Write the structure tokens for this entry.
Amino acid sequence: MSRIGKKPITIPAGVEFSCTDGKVTVKGPKGELTSKFASHINYEIKDGVLTVTREDDSIKNKMNHGTARAIIANMIHGVTEGYSKTLEIKGTGYRAEMRGKDLVLFVGHSHEDVVSPLPGVDISINKLEITVSGIDKQVVGQMAAVIRDVRKPEVYHGKGIRYKGETISLRQPASAKKSSGGK
């Protein structure tokens, strides 16, 4: 069996899990998430613990077993605690502001960049930090990636939008290499 697939998932109090025809629904205090999985994945709840199993050891079933378990665990975590990603803005004159629900970025382009949030995602700003939060891990990560793509950190000065805690290895400019004797 898959090492990830056979791990049991503890269902916290206040979370409802239901499955009909491969469609899994998880309801919790923060909201509701739904996802569709292959019909050969089975779910068993016993004493508040969810176990994900597969019908047989065919290659197709093995491929989907661990993935289904991981996604369901993320859904349960999302409806109870939620997910968030923090991005930092680095650069002279770079800034961000909220215009309604839209995020407006001023990051060195000749125009302002407007990013509209995906459904189910909240964006907030605290000085030069942008926080993206929501209950769906995939959508939160996608929204953070879209914001980061507006101005990726460049490798010579490190200016741009990066994930909090992300390290950028800076390169030495070619002119500095020539002046130091080409070493």
Notes: The first strand starts at residue 9 and ends at 10. The mean pLDDT is 92. Residues 23 and 36 are 4 Å apart (CA to CA).
